Please model this.
Amino acid sequence: MTKRSILIQALLMILFFICSSNSIAAQTMSWQEIVRLTKKHNIDLIVAEKEIEIARRQRSITKSGQNPKLSTGVSLRKSRDLSAASSSDSEQFSLDLSYLIYDGDKTRYNLLAEEEAIKYYENNYLVTESNTRLELRAGFCALLQSQELIKLTEAISKRRQQQLALVQLRYKAGLEHRGSLLTAEANYKKAIFELNQAKRNLIINQKSFVNVIGVTSNYKVDLEFDVGLQTKTEITPDFEKIVMNIPLFRTILFRKNQANYNTEALKGNYLPRIYASAGTGKDISALNENNFVYDDWSVGVNFSYDIFDGDKRDNELVKSQIQLVQNEWTLKKSFRDILLTMESVWTAFINAVDEELVSQSFVTASEERSTIAEAQYSSGLISFDNWTIIEDALINSQKKYLNARINTLISEAKWIQAKGGVLDEI
Model:
């Protein structure tokens, strides 16, 4: 192998590793970019979209019953008369046309029911998108929390390391006892553990998040904590007005409307069906003595009515009427349930916003106390026990504040989902 070929292979291997590392490199993405990816790849949204297409096809199938039906046929027959020792061949061609004139408005009501079914699946898609938004937002917040927790635990571990160094100096100078030294060492080890734990959790949350989006687990995302609240909390919403327009309630409404039209369609079974028909045929097996091909045609109106069907239509109608009543009660109950859920979610959101403000106040106070306590401990004005209590309070307040910020974002996401917000809603 020449030096040139070895050099080329080495360059190719370097390029391969560069491309591989770039393919799985983390990408910093905004919420809008994540939404675009989710709409394209999320399986639940794809399935919900296909359900709309199926419903539209079903409407086309039902509508085809109003169109004329044209059919053609060809028959070939060979017969033999044994007594006369003769045989004959027959070749016939036919063309028939039929058209539904009246069916007791059954087709019309079936079409109206299919229209309601389409509306149901269109709103069901919005419900799916709203649920997907909540799931995506929860994954977004979990990943964001993992990233921010790594930054926080890194700062805590550095702080604990500095505290350990200060305690070691005072211990060597005979100003601190061994218990304080061991406590400082344990605090530092705990900080390192929490940092490593946060890094491991980041990997799991990363995979969970991209799974909701619908892309492969090798797709990595970095998030920036620049997400603020989009919901105004100063004015209480009109819950009843919102309920009437959210997709979840409207799906139940359209199901009720569909049941109503299905009931009306079944009433058509008690009315006659009238068809217009026309047909023509040719016997082209042979020519007669006058070299003439036989033709025949027909035009007519067909009337049909079921006199008795074993009580089938009666039972079908009663069943449909019961289902209609059931849907009406379900609609009423759903309104109350959705209204209560919406008010509860709103209250939880307001509580989360207030809790975040309180947590922020504790962080401000703890940081100030920590700055003062560190100077006092360095000067020997307070004991190690008092100082470490203040430092622990600072760390706990910082963690609680991070949790409160994330909880506020998740609570807002639950509120947006409760009022039917979709992916495009920030």
Observations:
- Residues 187 and 392 are 9 Å apart (CA to CA).
- The longest strand covers residues 86-102.
